[in-house]
Design brief:
Dipeptide-binding Protein, domain 1, Dipeptide-binding Protein, domain 3, D-Maltodextrin-Binding Protein, domain 2, 21 strands
């Protein structure tokens, strides 16, 4: 959402669900004997759907499905921290203009067909195909020219860059590979019927989808990193946080992402709490197709009127699991700087800027995902903050799918919105959020200088010069006040204390687990 463009807004859907007991470690047969089949049930508060494809899927729960059924060449988790999957190595040339990937020779697709370099070339070319709408296209284009992907032999692929890019190793990673023999000739991959029955190389195969209820996967016995230890994985959709917490406490589900307020509710002997960093930035942004927020003075006035500390306290209780954010880059990103306008709460300054703008009796609409408990609380505080500055803020809680659809269009149904993203480490991976015309630029923000600097930063070899470029970008975006960073928060995963292998499976951004096959009971 690392470069998970669709995680620009982590969308949550809703439904009501009556739970049935099906804990893997408590499952029993009809005779009362313990069932030999193991099952892991993960409670999620959004419906990922069953249109699983690696090209356009970009929301959290959809990407969890992708990670369960497909595999990437490698996962880039920071400089020097690479986990190889379909590739065994990724080697740069001396001039850094090309990278050569050596592939595993023991991988089979779920339908038994062999995985080869043809699948890799096909996937990256589809990602580069503008009509396919690939979420990673922008990170595969350098100085307005695409990377060239070519097959050297059956298990070797070469990536040639038009120009040197220091962030290329990250840009080329974390892309899941799709089967050429399944999708070749498909004109519309995003809406293909084949997405409902994905053929991957991952640890599990999708076996059943019930809209609004659950997604079930069965283990892939031929998984190239070893047969998964748990037979069945279920992503169970539970919209209501209280219902989900109760389900975890009762053993009806085995894992759940919880809020800081929920942590104290659990019996430590039965439930383990696992907080971890995702480098997620939660934010408020303006819809710049709305006339009401065209003035920078108005946007800056709103930023000064907001009280970041109050917003964080209301949604995360304290700084234990959340820290204030000031830049569009998370603090662990390369070239992050704190030297930007923080817009610290200042009602007098807000009123002064409003007066300067000449705008009176300002009424705005703030959109957010209605079932997201964090956004609900943030929106309520923001409404009170702006009221103190003489601005009326109407709250528009929306269905996640509807909000996602609105964000991708030019519209004036709302003036501001709440969201969050998980993108990566190199600042180049964030360019799609802010460059003019990008499909992930939901603000419809445009600053030619920012566009120019992002292009320069992508191909600049000198680290000191890159730092200057990205610090300038952070300062310009902050000054334009189209984007108001709120928080960097940890994700808190609560699990059945009997669940083993969490460390081996690896807790990572977006997907939760880097390799589900390592979980066991």
């Amino acid at each position: 959402m690392r470069k998970y463009a669709g995680l620009v807004v982590v969308l949550l859907l809703s439904m009501t669900l009556v739970l049935a007991g099906c804990s893997s470690n408590n499952a029993t047969s009809g005779t009362g004997e313990k069932d030999s089949e193991t099952k892991f049930v993960y409670g999620i508060n959004g419906d990922p759907g069953n249109s699983v494809n690696v090209i356009t899927t970009s929301d959290r729960f959809g990407l969890m499905e992708v990670k369960t059924t497909y595999s990437p060449l490698y996962m880039y988790n920071g400089k020097g921290n690479i986990k190889y999957f379909l590739a065994t190595s990724m080697t740069p040339s001396k001039d850094l203009l090309s990278y050569t990937a050596k592939l595993r020779k023991d991988v089979k697709w779920h339908d038994g067909k062999p995985f080869t370099a043809d699948d890799v070339v096909f996937t990256y070319n589809q990602m580069l195909n503008e009509s396919a709408g690939g979420w990673a296209r922008s990170q595969l284009v350098f100085d307005n020219k695409p990377v060239k992907v070519e097959k050297i032999d059956k298990y070797t692929v070469k990536f040639t860059l038009p120009k040197v890019s220091i962030g290329a190793e990250e840009a080329l990673g974390n892309i899941f590979i799709m089967p050429k023999h399944v999708y070749e000739g498909e004109k519309n991959i995003a809406n293909s019927k084949k997405n409902a029955q994905p053929v991957g190389t991952g640890p599990y195969k999708l076996s059943n989808y019930k809209a609004g209820e659950s997604v079930t996967f069965e283990k892939n016995k031929d998984y190239f990193l070893g047969e998964p230890k748990i037979d069945t994985v279920v992503y169970r959709i539970i919209e209501d946080a209280n219902t989900a917490n109760l389900a975890l406490q009762n053993g009806d589900i085995n894992a759940l992402a919880v809020s800081p307020a929920d942590v104290s509710k659990f019996d430590a002997s039965k439930i383990s709490v696992n907080p971890y960093d995702e480098n997620r930035v939660g934010y408020m942004a303006f819809n710049l197709t709305s006339k009401a927020v065209q003035s920078k003075d108005v946007r800056q006035a709103i930023a000064y009127a907001l009280n970041r500390k109050e917003i964080i306290k209301a949604s995360y209780l304290s700084n234990k699991y959340a820290q204030p954010a000031y830049s569009f880059l998370p603090k662990k990103a390369t070239y992050y700087t704190n030297d930007v306008n923080h817009y610290d709460h200042n009602i007098a300054k807000a009123k002064e800027l409003l007066k300067k703008s000449g705008v009176k009796n300002l009424t705005l609409k703030l959109a957010y995902t209605g079932v997201d408990q964090f956004q609900q609380k943030q929106a309520a505080v923001m409404q009170q903050n702006l009221k103190a500055a003489g601005i009326t803020l109407k709250l528009v809680g929306m269905d996640g799918t509807a909000l996602s659809s609105k964000l991708g269009k030019v519209q004036t149904d709302f003036d501001m919105y709440l969201g969050g993203y998980i993108m990566g480490f190199d600042p180049d991976t964030f360019n799609s959020l802010f460059t003019t015309g990008s499909s992930s630029n939901y603000m419809h923000y445009s600053n030619p200088t920012v566009d120019k600097l992002f292009n320069e930063g992508r191909v600049e070899k000198d680290s000191k010069k890159r730092q200057e470029i990205y610090e300038k970008i952070q300062q310009l975006i902050s000054d334009d006040a189209a984007f108001y960073p709120i928080v960097e928060n940890k994700r808190i995963l609560a699990t059945d204390s009997n669940l083993k292998g969490i460390k081996e499976a690896g807790l990572v951004p977006v997907y939760t687990f880097e390799d589900l096959s390592k979980l066991s009971y």
